[in-house]
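Follow-up to my post from last week.
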Amino acid sequence: MRKSITILALFFVSLLGAQRAMADSCNGVSAGANLIANCAFGTGDFTSWSGTATSDPFSFVDSGDPLAIGSTPYNGLPFEAALGSIGTTDTLSQTFATTPGDSYTIIFALLNDTDPDPSGYNNSFVAAFGPTTLLSLGNAGADAYTLYAYSETATGASTTLSFTEENDLGSWELDSVSVQGPAVSSTPEPSTFLLLGSGIVAMAGAARRRFAR
Amino acid sequence: MNQNCATPVFALSAFALALGFATTAPAAQNHERLIREPVDDTYRVTLAGNTRSEAIPANDRGILRDETPMNGLQLVLHRSPESQAAFEEYLAELHNPKSALFHKWLTNKQIGERFGASDEDIATVKEWLASEGLHVDTVSPDKMVIEFSGDAGHVRAAFQAALHNLVVDGRSHISNMNDPSMPHAFAPLVAGVAKLNDFMPHPLNVRRPATAAHKSGVGTIANDPFRNGDAGGGFNFIGAADLATMYNFNPVFTSGITGKGQSIVVVEDTNQYSQGDWVMFRKVMGLSRAYPYGTMTQVNPSGTADVCANPGDNGDDTEAAIDVDWATAAAPNAAIVSAACADTVQFGGFLALANLLTEATPPKIVSISYGESESELGAAENLYINNLYASAVAEGVSVFVSSGDELAASSDGGRVATHGITVSGFTSTPYNISVGGTDIAAEPLFETATYYSPTNLANFRTALSYVPEVPWNDSCTSAVTVDFINAVNSTSFTQVGPSSFCNFDGGVAANDDGLLGAVGGSGGPSACATGTPATRGITGGTCAGYAKPAWQSIFGNPADGVRDTPDVSLMAGNGLWGVYYAACISNPADGPAADGFVPCGANPAGWTGWGGTSVSSPIWAGIQALVNQSTGSAWGNSNPVLYTMGNMEYGAGGNPSCNSTLGNAIGSTCAFNDVTLGDNSGVCDAGRSGTINCFLDGAKYGILSTSNTADDEAYPATPGWDFTSGIGTANAWNIVNSWSAAVAATKPILLDKLKK
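User reply:
Got it. Predicted complex:
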């Protein structure tokens, strides 16, 4: 009996792992269709993301910004990225495979939690899809979450979605990031196969040990 | 007829007192008339003790033109002895937890109605002012100040005071050259004019020395420990997380006591330069997200006591920024209010405070980071301050005031002392909590490895625990400094005399190190709150200090019969031992970019650095905010509770387990850390008026001493209360948690004193 429970537990662990690797569903785009991993920072950190923001002490993943209008992550999600580089710009990015000439839909939610100050404290935010600037904000006032959506054509075999920011006095809260290509596939990602596979292997191993007795 | 009214009023007051103040609120109107003779301009009384020491021929630049406007002049009123006694007894009852009047705070208007001047007397004075061509602007609701304005010609004629232009230290001023006078009939009511000069108090902050520019090493001893700016060769700023660790704020915050719902007002004579600086301070120090309810607002209060002009942003904005930064560090969810009026002839911060006191909901905690010695302020200004704070306390306001940054020589502005022992009149009243300054002693005790993390922890914290403290003393006479120099050099410098470090190489070495002066936490006995010094700036003549308050009775406090300062302390060092406070101040007009006067970056090591009791005062105000939140009450003058708490800790002979030198081994229940090592004695010299409170011991530079012929240094740190740090520095958690017990024990002290 105990062995059966162990097998079941291992199976569910493998399923959970698969779900984690599939990352969050964002903006109605299923995890399989979303080219952005960890799209809502559901891991509680910057897993799958790159850039200087991931090591800046004033940028982190939080479960709600008490300074923000609304103060909770976008649309009831458990986490959000708080980006607050001081005196210089940081970048947060992901690179993914694209097909040149194909059109991609980019969606993300963004808010600014603090007004700038004329005595030399600034904020700026630039979102870019490859070489194309999607959004550029400078010395923006505090606001609530806004959902930004764009459609852009890829120019290379891989494309980087980047967010470049400075927020001297506060933070940009970034959440629910999705990039969806024209050929939406529900095929699980390789990493999902890997995790599912490891769970199956573990189950098989456990079963074999049980039958071998 | 009005005189006849006085007797029953006071009889009623006495009856109410006898009944233990069974009534809950004062209702009776004070109709006692003090002006009892005809107003005769030819029969005058001189208002002695109201001429600045700078008003001398050497500084005189001629008569002030008649048409020069003079605004914000204030006639300071005093009560009859009977009315003053009744007011003081009422204040005592407000602070007596067993009294029916406990915490039944008055409004400013009620103070005026019960204990202020009669309307008839005020009308008489107003009539006279008008007859002299002067305009009455306001009468404070507590009826202790009549504010008026006019031109110099009419002011000169009314008060028979020679009004002149002066230039002092390169700055233009105006001042009366002789004591003013007024009709003799006013003498029982009018104490004087505050004031007929425009000398302002100084903000009590001291900048961190620049590492490279300071202390060049010319003429120094072989191994000058201070050559690079501090003894350890590097600086270590204190951030909010360090403060919370050293003084044990963290468990208070964790318990949910963060200052939420409380307001702390810092009074200034300047607006803040930048709201962004404060926001940045909170962000980088890790306060903004952890304590998101903290706010900072700038106000120019337009109450009914004074005319308040917007001062804009001026050179005191560094002080204003330090105040709001460190108040929020101590009470991070509190609302910080920076209240400022433009200076008139009166300090704008006082104008702001007076107006705030007239509001429907006056502030409950105030911090003042400015000062001026009693003997320089003059009798009328001292009384003005005393009355202002007394009204504040009657309204439930806790007034925290920096003790000063001039060691025991407040008249000397940090220079080599020549005016003897003096204290700041801003901090010496019985109605304020005087906040002194200590320094962090890890370096001079060679214990930095024990107390500092070699790398920054969260939110730039490096302090690992409570750290031993000594009095803040940047003078070459400091015993701690002399001992340290000797230890690292194998020299045998003495504290005083020809073999002292102060006199080594004719004072060049000490001067080169920035130690030839009297900079450090102030403390001493009130000595010239009333009367007239024979020489302005020097205690003497008919000078007298405030009487010792009933609550100032504690082990270590001398039986000197006068109010002694400070009451409490906190770290205020500006870097002598490597430690200073970081503050975010970006105004390029305040200093060079190299010293941090630029928009603040992500590391406070690049910010401006400060010491001074102007930092310790707003922090103590923050502690009071935690107490007020915890107890759900305002406390007015907190000294009766603080001294009771100190008595509970020290008993009759001190408490060795609370000795600051124990550092991280200090007793866990100590509310106060008892600073016992070191002194706040400064270097002195024979001045124009001779040798005053200075033991030279045959050398050029001596040590501040209560004797000119013996080394009775002023003052050493000792067990229990002392003139360097008062009761001691704070363990915030223990203070908050001991408050109620101390309140319960407060009554016997008050009542014992009242019976005398």
